[in-house]
Design goal:
With about 270 residues, the protein is an alpha+beta fold. The protein folds into three domains: about 40 residues; about 70 residues, no CATH class; about 110 residues, no CATH class. It is about 40% helix and about 20% strand. It is built from five helices and ten strands; from the N terminus they run ααααββββββαββββ. The strands form three sheets. It has a four-stranded antiparallel beta sheet with strand order 2-1-6-7, with no helix packed on it. A three-stranded antiparallel beta sheet has the order 3-4-5, with no helix packed on it. Strand 8 and strand 9 form a beta hairpin. The two termini are about 45 Å apart.
């Protein structure tokens, strides 16, 4: 193969890869938005039972007999209703609604269990302009011993210690990529979970982009329980996360000594 042809062949490959990397975030955004739209349509689309209910409500306010317009009006009315509910909750009606739920939903055995579980999950979600999941932290989990062992970023939903098989464990959640709506919940030994200075927003962006847009971050010391029943989040250099102590439920079993097979050295 002539040298000129070989040179331009390599350059063409480089141009293509550069263009692909440049357009990849847009393609992933379109893919995620299409998946979200398909999921929403599967639950509240005009062909679903809930969508037909919205259509019937909107039909009463529609100036024409167009079913599409009736469905759009129904969706708009739902959005307005959710907005007004948020206004009521922000104005102090949350306690009243909780009392109503306790007098009604909490009296139904099966529904009560499902409602309490979903309510706890929803309370972890962000609200207003808070940029991270309420009570969650981005941590680095190391698998194996030694500073050169592989690891991954994960979410730590709580600072509660779980004594298992004579060792203390943290619970972490590792989502799937590129759509972080599923994943795995793992119990990781104390000493293998490290504090980071990454925000949840940057964490989500890393998974959605398949690692392409992973922001630089630093790893601090392992997160360890304290003998007085609190767990300390170690400070990280140049970190927006302050060194804060979080109260955790007191365990009947005192915190166990970290396993010797875990290297506490940071990466």
């Amino acid at each position: 193969m002539p040298a000129a042809v070989k040179y331009w062949s390599k350059r063409a490959k480089a141009y293509f890869i550069t263009g692909l990397i440049a357009i990849l975030p847009l393609l992933l955004t379109i893919f995620v938005m299409k998946w979200i739209a398909g999921t929403i349509d599967g639950y509240i689309g005009p062909r679903t039972m809930f969508g037909q209910l919205l259509q019937s409500v909107g039909y009463k306010f529609s100036p024409t007999s167009d079913l599409t317009l009736a469905y759009v009006l129904g969706v708009l009315l739902l959005v307005v209703a959710i907005f007004l509910l948020g206004v009521l909750l922000e104005s102090g009606a949350r306690n009243a609604m909780t009392a109503v739920a306790q007098r009604t939903i909490y009296q139904l055995p099966l529904v009560r269990a499902i409602y309490r579980t979903t309510d706890k999950f929803v309370n972890l979600m962000p609200s207003g302009d808070v940029d991270n999941l309420r009570g969650m932290r981005v941590v680095y989990v190391r698998f194996g011993s030694g500073a050169e062992s592989p690891g991954t970023l994960a979410l730590m939903p709580s600072m509660e210690v779980f004594p298992l098989a004579g060792k203390d464990h943290w619970i972490v959640i590792i989502p799937t990529a590129p759509i972080p709506v599923g994943g795995a919940m793992l119990f990781i030994p104390v000493g293998a979970v490290f504090a980071t200075n990454m925000s949840v927003d940057a964490f989500a962006g890393s998974f959605v982009s398949l690692g392409v847009s992973t922001a630089p971050f630093q790893i601090g010391d392992p997160i360890r329980p304290k003998p007085n029943g609190a767990a300390e989040l170690p400070p990280v250099a140049n970190s927006p996360i302050p060194a804060t102590s979080f109260a955790v439920p007191t365990q009947d079993t005192p915190p166990a000594t970290p396993s010797p097979d875990i290297d506490p050295a940071t990466s």
